[in-house]
Specification:
CATH class: Mainly Beta
Distance between the termini: 49 Å
Shape: flat
Mean pLDDT: 89
Oligomer: single chain
Order of helices and strands: HEEEEEEEEEEE
Number of strands: 11
Largest sheet: 5 strands, antiparallel
Strand content: over 45%
CATH architecture: Sandwich
Helix content: 10-25%
Low-confidence stretches: 21-25
Strand order of the largest sheet: 1-11-4-8-7
């Protein structure tokens, strides 16, 4: 009986260690990830979501993701964004991109709990940052609404491609 209890404890501890190790290793690619919560009254057309990122590795390429958390009350199936990347040397690059948040059937994409849906959308793959230093990522909504309802959080993720 005593040996059985000890064996159960050993197995439990081993499983905990494995779970912890796999959680850490799953996100080894992450260079940066953060979210900004938007005003509860909506995302104003003039509001800019800003991420300042200190990048040190100029030898590897990176994938850039935009993370969007939308409510089920978001009135559209897509989202237009203006994204600007400012480099340490002062150069800027701006893109206008459209992200699809819902299937043609109307079903929300991404994962969700209740009325909140979380999407991690690839914005650019295999991006090379040639300079060490501080990069600025700016995101503005590009929809026709002056105040866009239904988007709760906007995030940015940068991960190594290895």
């Amino acid at each position: 009986m005593f040996r059985y209890q000890q064996m159960k404890q050993v197995i439990f501890y081993i499983l905990c260690i494995l779970l912890f190790a796999s959680t850490i290793s799953c996100d080894r690619k992450r260079v940066f990830e953060a979210y900004r919560t938007l005003d509860q009254n909506g995302w104003n057309k003039d509001s800019v979501v800003v991420f300042k990122v200190a990048l040190k590795d100029t030898t590897r390429n990176n994938n850039l993701y935009v993370n969007i958390r939308n409510k089920g009350t978001y009135p559209y199936s897509n989202l237009w964004l203006f994204l600007t990347i400012g480099a340490p040397d002062g150069k800027q690059h701006t893109d206008t991109v459209e992200f699809s948040l819902a299937e043609a059937s109307g079903r929300w994409k991404g994962s969700g709990i209740g009325d909140l849906h979380d999407n991690q959308i690839l914005y650019k793959s295999s991006v090379f940052f040639p300079h060490k230093g501080n990069y600025t990522f700016q995101i503005k909504q590009g929809m026709r609404d002056n105040v866009l309802q239904g988007i709760r959080d906007v995030g940015l993720r940068i991960e190594r491609t290895y």
